[in-house]
TrEMBL record, chain B:
<keyword id="KW-0001">2Fe-2S</keyword>
<dbReference type="InterPro" id="IPR039261">
    <property type="entry name" value="FNR_nucleotide-bd"/>
</dbReference>
<dbReference type="GO" id="GO:0006221">
    <property type="term" value="P:pyrimidine nucleotide biosynthetic process"/>
</dbReference>
<dbReference type="GO" id="GO:0046872">
    <property type="term" value="F:metal ion binding"/>
</dbReference>
<dbReference type="Pfam" id="PF10418">
    <property type="entry name" value="DHODB_Fe-S_bind"/>
</dbReference>
<dbReference type="InterPro" id="IPR019480">
    <property type="entry name" value="Dihydroorotate_DH_Fe-S-bd"/>
</dbReference>
<dbReference type="GO" id="GO:0016491">
    <property type="term" value="F:oxidoreductase activity"/>
</dbReference>
<keyword id="KW-0408">Iron</keyword>
<dbReference type="InterPro" id="IPR012165">
    <property type="entry name" value="Cyt_c3_hydrogenase_gsu"/>
</dbReference>
<dbReference type="InterPro" id="IPR001433">
    <property type="entry name" value="OxRdtase_FAD/NAD-bd"/>
</dbReference>
<feature type="binding site">
    <location>
        <position position="230"/>
    </location>
    <ligand>
        <name>[2Fe-2S] cluster</name>
    </ligand>
</feature>
<dbReference type="InterPro" id="IPR050353">
    <property type="entry name" value="PyrK_electron_transfer"/>
</dbReference>
<dbReference type="InterPro" id="IPR017927">
    <property type="entry name" value="FAD-bd_FR_type"/>
</dbReference>
<dbReference type="GO" id="GO:0051537">
    <property type="term" value="F:2 iron, 2 sulfur cluster binding"/>
</dbReference>
<dbReference type="GO" id="GO:0050660">
    <property type="term" value="F:flavin adenine dinucleotide binding"/>
</dbReference>
<feature type="binding site">
    <location>
        <position position="242"/>
    </location>
    <ligand>
        <name>[2Fe-2S] cluster</name>
    </ligand>
</feature>
<dbReference type="InterPro" id="IPR017938">
    <property type="entry name" value="Riboflavin_synthase-like_b-brl"/>
</dbReference>
Length: 491, 282
């Protein structure tokens, strides 16, 4: 095989050959050791140092037509920010990223870069792509670390836009899509108010993604603080459809509304015993631990059950988060039960690797049939159906099918169901003018993200169903562009 | 929407050390609150989210009323707040409003702090033109809540005490059964109180085939349908009490499962309460 990789004809003819420089591998990022990190909720990935970041930045070829940018849903000018970074100009690098991405410290951490920017990097053909996510994260962290307030205040008159109180825009929900809309419009002089149903801002960034992947105080709150400096106003404990309706907002003088309420209603397995004590939806389990800080009970009031033998159902990022959370709460064994094989899991590779390093067992080709409990209703076991992979279907995937009669039982006192979410009807039921599709998601014009109600836009999971942080941000950006155009503020 | 803090404008200790009533200034919630709705609140920045029923709402004054029984850390912490203090977080109104229409005679049964929640629904039925009968009970006369409020608008108020110190000696279900035997105009029974009481009321009405509505008090976290902590089995279907309820057909509810699920965090609740009492020198 080696012989075919390189054309050796010139050498064979005895002509001089230009020796190609071997491609340097990407600079590794320091991590907490697995044995140590499963005892705490601190961030696992420690991030690049300045030296490591600049070394990695210098690997970038500075393509004229950068494919990486095409792979980024919000089109961050990647080569430009990396060039600034390679030259040590952190503030310029940060401002370059911020021109299209409101949440770089978050996206740098939780984006599936392997299928987006990094998956498109030209270096991937010869070796490892540029670690774009790690570099974005480094720039954002370094900038926030140097105190964003001081940097923003320095020359604030030039950079801070003048807010026009007449150009009132409401964002419903404070997750990634809404925050993107807020950042885009506020930086163009609109008066943005964000309404959040929970008591803390950030949506899935605070209730879903755990502290060890995305620190709340150090990162999420800082990103939101940067929006507050753009005079974005935040109102918590405000439930759309209950505390207020879209009509109320227009009556209050808002000119446009963005709906970014996510897809928060959990799916269950619909098998017997699912209401036993110890069976949680991933949303409940993670909300208790992350939003309620139940890992610090009883200093915080929200309680959680710390299982001894934990089983998690599903193969996505949420399942990995729940499993790794259970380990940190002291479980003796944690299993991810999945009906396909590890390579078919939709979770990010990095998250699966981290979970396995930490000791999570992948119980693959198994499907839950029934939960059983003791006389007090406490979960004690799960009966599983063993599966095998059948012939490839039309999509080319080998679909799992049960092996008749091959069932087995696992001891478990804590089960977390992470098989996805659906559209939450709380708001939509109270907005009859809003057209939804047959799955209950909001229908929008793809080019503008406008809904069936004029000047009401929607984006993120409430339109697409559960997806990623960056896709939600991308939808927010599309909607924000159209909103800015109509408000006459786009430069 | 909450920007101004939600402040306690009036606090009344209905049963000292046990049950209190709070009138809270929150015009945005008061404007929208209907009978049957509830709120989620947090007492402090480290607090948990707990649900409480809206026992009354005054849209003009911009206030809602809540009644709670001190039974653990969060309610004990709430009990330390006084007039002028603000709740850390208050979110609502949540849940489906009570379905109220003019049907004839409606009996509203209440037990414990559930009487307060029941009284708001009874008021709704009265306003809709129903002949409204309240049946309320307590262990003894001094523990009876909201008697005067109910008497101010209900057509009839019937009372039962376990020890016979006031009204009928025995349970509210006995008073209810007597009434159902003799009164064929009863179209609906509403029951709010402890789970065993709501279960007993549902059993009592079943042979009479009278529609029975119960308001379920399952464990909640977000209260907006995000997590399913509050899930209950109703007619063999899984429902979320926070968005599908909290009111359901009492003849369809799996009360046994509800009772078990309510005990899910008992050890943690005791631990949290003990730690709180130690800090507050009780």
């Amino acid at each position: 095989m080696e012989a075919y990789r390189e054309c050796r004809c010139k050498a064979a003819e005895g002509k001089p050959v230009k020796k190609k420089k071997a491609l340097a591998p990407r600079v590794p990022m320091p991590h907490q050791a697995p044995a140590e990190r499963i005892k705490n909720f601190n961030e696992v990935a420690l991030g690049y140092t300045s030296q490591l970041a600049m070394e990695e930045a210098r690997r970038c070829l500075q393509c004229k037509k950068p494919a990486c940018v095409e792979g980024c849903p919000v089109e961050v000018p990647i080569p430009q920010f990396i060039a600034h970074l390679a030259a040590g100009r952190i503030e310029d690098a940060y401002k370059t990223i911020k021109t299209t991405n409101s949440l770089p410290a978050i996206c740098g951490r939780v984006c599936p870069q392997e299928v987006q920017c990094e998956g498109n990097c030209i270096l991937l053909k010869k070796g490892q792509p540029i670690a774009i996510g790690r570099l974005e994260r480094f720039v954002a962290d370094e900038y926030l670390h140097r105190d964003a307030c001081d940097l923003l205040a320095d020359g604030a008159k030039e950079t801070c836009p003048v807010i026009d109180p007449e150009k009132k825009v409401a964002c419903i929900g404070s997750g990634p899509s809404s925050l993107t809309v807020a950042g885009y419009l506020a930086s163009r002089g609109c008066k943005v108010t964000v309404f959040e149903a929970l008591h803390e801002l950030g949506g899935v960034l605070v209730y879903g993604i755990p502290e060890f992947r995305l620190p709340k105080n150090r990162i999420v709150h800082k990103e939101i603080h940067a929006l507050k400096q753009l005079q974005v106003e935040f109102k918590v404990n405000a439930v759309a459809g209950k505390t207020f309706t879209v009509q109320d907002l227009f009556a209050q003088g808002f000119k446009a509304v963005f709906i970014g309420v996510g897809a928060g209603l959990p799916r269950f397995l619909n098998i017997p015993g699912e209401n036993a004590i110890g069976v949680f939806s991933a949303n409940e389990y993670l909300t208790r631990v992350n939003l309620g800080r139940a890992y610090d009970f009883p200093n915080y009031d929200t309680p959680i059950i710390c299982g001894k033998h934990v089983t998690v159902y599903g193969g996505g990022n949420v399942a990995m988060d729940a499993a790794r959370t259970a380990l940190r709460l002291g479980a003796e064994s944690v299993r991810i039960v999945y009906r396909r094989t590890v390579d078919a899991m939709p979770a990010r590779h990095e998250e699966i690797e981290h979970a396995i390093e930490e000791g999570v067992i992948m119980e693959c080709l198994a499907a839950p049939l029934e939960f059983t409990c003791n006389e007090h209703g406490h979960l004690k076991a799960v009966r599983l159906q063993r599966m095998e992979l059948g012939e490839p279907d039309d999509s080319g995937r080998r679909s799992p099918r049960p092996i008749p009669g091959d069932t087995y039982e696992l001891e478990t006192d804590l089960a977390v169901i992470a098989v996805g979410t659906r559209s939450n009807p709380v708001m939509l039921d109270n907005e009859p003018l809003l057209t939804t599709n047959k799955w209950g998601y909001v229908q929008v014009d793809e080019a503008t993200c406008e809904t069936s109600i004029p000047n009401v836009f929607a984006g993120g999971d409430i339109v697409t169903g559960a997806a990623t942080v960056i896709l939600a941000a991308g939808a927010g950006r599309t909607a924000a562009k159209e909103m800015a155009r109509r408000l006459g503020v786009d430069s | 929407m909450q920007q101004t803090p939600c402040t306690i404008v009036k606090k009344e200790r209905l049963i000292p050390g046990q049950t209190s009533k709070l009138v809270i200034s929150c015009p945005h919630i008061a404007k929208k609150a209907q009978p049957g709705n509830f709120v989620i609140l947090r007492v402090s920045a480290q607090g948990e989210r707990i649900p409480l029923t809206i026992a009354d709402a005054d849209p003009e004054a911009g206030t809602i009323t809540m009644v709670y029984l001190v039974m653990g850390k969060s309610t004990a912490h709430l009990e330390t707040l006084e007039e002028g203090d603000a709740l850390h977080d208050l979110c609502g109104p949540l849940g489906q409003a009570t379905h109220i229409e003019q049907v004839g005679t409606v009996i509203c049964v209440g037990g414990g702090t559930g009487i307060a929640a029941m009284h708001h629904i009874a008021k709704g039925h009265q306003r809709a033109g129903n002949h409204t009968v309240a049946i309320i009970g307590a262990r003894s006369k001094n523990l009876l809540l909201f008697e005067h409020e109910l008497k101010s608008f209900c057509d009839e108020v019937l009372i039962a005490t376990d020890d016979g110190s006031y009204g009928h000696k025995g349970f509210v279900t006995q008073v209810l059964e007597e009434r159902l035997k003799t009164d064929k105009t009863v179209k609906e029974v509403v029951a709010i109180g402890p789970v065993p009481m709501m279960e007993a009321v549902s059993k009592t009405t079943k042979p009479f085939g009278v529609k029975t509505t119960v308001s379920l008090n399952s464990i909640m976290v977000d209260g907006i349908g995000m997590c399913g902590a509050c899930r209950v089995s109703v007619g063999g279907q899984v429902k979320f009490a926070c968005v599908d309820g909290p009111e359901f057909d009492g003849h369809q509810v799996d009360f046994g499962e509800l009772r078990q699920r309510l005990a899910a965090f008992k050890p943690q609740e005791a631990l949290s309460f003990e730690a709180f009492k130690e800090r507050h020198g009780k």
